[in-house]
DNA sequence: AATACCTATCGGAAATATACGATGTGTACG
DNA sequence: CGTACACATCGTATATTTCCGATAGGTATT
């Protein structure tokens, strides 16, 4: 993950609607949710949510798969992993002492 | 870290200038850098950078400490850690199988 | 073929973010 | 005390984001 990709992912997740949608999709891995289900959950208009979804897709955080006449959306866990590694490397580049407590807390889950 | 705090951190880091400044500060832990040094590194005007710095500070990612007539800025590693745990919990909430490969790659650093 | 359904895109209005120079506030130095 | 310095804030112009309704483009159903 390069800087531009990380910036796109951070910007995509920095909006309440998109963060909530992404979290919802992660919770529903690996089955995914249809776009309509996500629209309903968001409470926004269909068109507005569609643009939000496009932002998540462009950032590589969500992939869609055609299923009959609807689209099933799925969270890209690898993209989240990439973003976290990008952030972690900020503090780990040759400074393991900064990262150790981070890894210790992460291993709780 | 609650959702609002995470959103503020994500938004703060989603701008090239602010992400770069934060990474610079992480690299200079624990000594920190003066605001002026950060302004110079950014290439932006002093006032513009000051507002960017305020965003990082409001998100809790940077703390400043008065040092003579200048301010020393320091990265809050704990805030980064909190954000990463917030993101990790999205995929770990009772789904350890999603998180294992993440932790495996993170332990590299 | 006609219709109903699901989602994307267009057009436009309102809100927010971003940038700068100018100015204000406080601190050290002579 | 006066001056130079370090940083924040104000005022303002521009760009971007966000939202909606309306419309377009496919896909299944009848």
Describe this structure in words.
The structure is a homodimer of 109-residue chains. Chain A is α+β, with helices and mostly antiparallel strands and 109 residues long. In chain A, a hairpin with a 2-residue loop joins strand 2 (62-67) and strand 3 (70-75). The longest helix of chain A is centred in the C-terminal third of the chain and has 16 residues, at 77-92. In chain A, strands 1-3-2 form a three-stranded antiparallel sheet. In chain A, helix 2 (16-27) crosses helix 4. Chain A is built from six helices and three strands; from the N terminus they run ααβααββαα. The first copy, chain A, has a single domain, classed as Arc Repressor Mutant, subunit A (Orthogonal Bundle). The first copy, chain A, is elongated and about 50 Å long. The A-B interface holds A 3, 6-7, 10-11, 13-16, 19, 22-23, 26-27, 29, 77, 80-81, 83-85, 87-93, 95-96, 98-99, 101-103, 105-107, 109 and B 3, 6-7, 10-11, 13-16, 19, 22-23, 26-27, 29, 77, 80-81, 83-85, 87-93, 95-96, 98-99, 101-103, 105-107, 109. Chain A binds a DNA duplex (30 and 30 nucleotides) through helix 3 and helix 4.
């Amino acid at each position: 993950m390069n800087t531009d990709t990380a910036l796109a992912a951070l910007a995509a997740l920095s909006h309440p609607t998109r963060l909530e949608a992404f979290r919802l999709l992660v919770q529903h891995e690996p089955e995914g949710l249809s776009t309509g289900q996500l629209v309903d959950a968001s409470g926004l208009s269909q068109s507005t949510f569609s643009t939000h979804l496009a932002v998540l897709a462009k950032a590589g955080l969500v992939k869609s798969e055609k299923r009959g006449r609807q689209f099933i959306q799925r969270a890209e866990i690898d993209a989240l992993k990439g973003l976290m590694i990008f952030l972690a490397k900020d503090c780990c580049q040759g400074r393991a002492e900064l990262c150790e407590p981070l890894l210790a807390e992460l291993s709780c889950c």
